[in-house]
Design a protein that fits this description.
Order of helices and strands: EEEHHHHHHEHEHHE
Strand order of the largest sheet: 1-4
Structural class: mainly alpha
Shape: globular
Enzyme class: transferase
Protein name: Phosphatidylglycerol--prolipoprotein diacylglyceryl transferase
Strand content: 5-15%
Organism: Methylophilales bacterium HTCC2181
Distance between the termini: 56 Å
Family: Belongs to the Lgt family.
Radius of gyration: 19 Å
Number of strands: 6
InterPro entries: Lgt
């Protein structure tokens, strides 16, 4: 049995200014996106993209992550509450972000970028798909530090007590997600995209693998208390992963043409 180290959620405080670990993890994730994107531009010539497109992709994608993540949480998880409390919809400091909503926001942000630069949307998605998982890794580490999104009770030897919740050993599901959705997904996509692929295959593989990993991990993650288990005893996260898996398989199998676009 393990006990959460109870890390102070504030990484650095200077007078009234406080930098939280969670925000710092987002910042590091964004930096990793830019760094890996520049490496791809240099080493993976078949994408035929430049740093200006990368910068715009990052800018509009970041806006999509933040707005989409928040609105996704509002619509997918607590629509009735926020319908009666509309003033709290954009109260980001209260917490509440949805990966699936953030993904939709990114898709829309990238669409705007491709319209601006006259590039192909799915081709650009293939470019950014391998850049995303490390950001997910850092985000889940932030969840772990904050003792949020904890797991279900377990008697496994690595079960962890999260003191802010109770004294019951639980799955450290944030770490499971950091490893599977972050490190392992990044490794697979980075290696897969190191060779020229059909347009859409890298994007499809991202959707498929993330959906499968998240669906499986949800069996160890405590359901949201205000929702509980839903249809077929699945969590909301699992239900939202099902279309991801289906769309991922479809895109991967229907991919046509090489990624080399002139």
């Amino acid at each position: 049995m393990l006990i959460h180290p109870q890390i102070d959620p504030v990484a650095l405080g200077i007078g009234p200014l406080k930098i939280h670990w969670y925000g710092l993890m987002y910042f590091i994730g964004f930096l990793s996106f830019i760094h890996l994107g520049k490496k791809q531009i240099i080493n993976r010539h078949w994408f035929n993209l430049n740093e200006k497109i990368l910068d715009d992709t990052f800018f509009f994608g970041a806006i999509g992550v933040i707005l989409g993540g928040r609105l996704g949480y509002v619509l997918f998880y607590q629509p009735l509450y926020y319908f009666t409390h509309p003033d709290e919809i954009f109260a980001f400091w209260q917490g509440g972000m949805s990966f699936h909503g953030g993904l939709i926001g990114v898709l829309l942000g990238i669409y705007w970028t491709t319209r601006k630069h006259n590039t192909k949307w799915l081709h650009t998605m293939d470019f950014i798909a391998p850049l995303v998982p490390l950001g997910l890794f850092f985000g889940r580490i932030g969840n772990f530090i904050n003792q949020e999104l904890w797991g279900r009770p377990t008697d496994l030897p690595w079960g962890m007590i999260f003191p802010v919740i109770d004294s019951v050993p639980r799955h450290p599901s944030q770490i499971y997600e950091a490893i599977l959705e972050g490190i392992i997904l990044f490794t697979i996509l980075w290696i897969f995209s190191s060779e020229e692929r059909k347009i859409g295959q890298t994007s499809g593989l991202f959707l498929l693998l993330y959906g499968v990993f998240r669906f499986g991990i949800e069996f160890t993650r405590e359901p949201d208390r205000f929702l509980g288990l839903l249809f077929l005893n699945l969590t909301m996260g699992q239900i939202l992963c099902l279309p991801m898996i289906g769309i991922g398989i479809y895109i991967f199998l229907k991919s046509k043409g090489l990624n080399n676009i002139d």
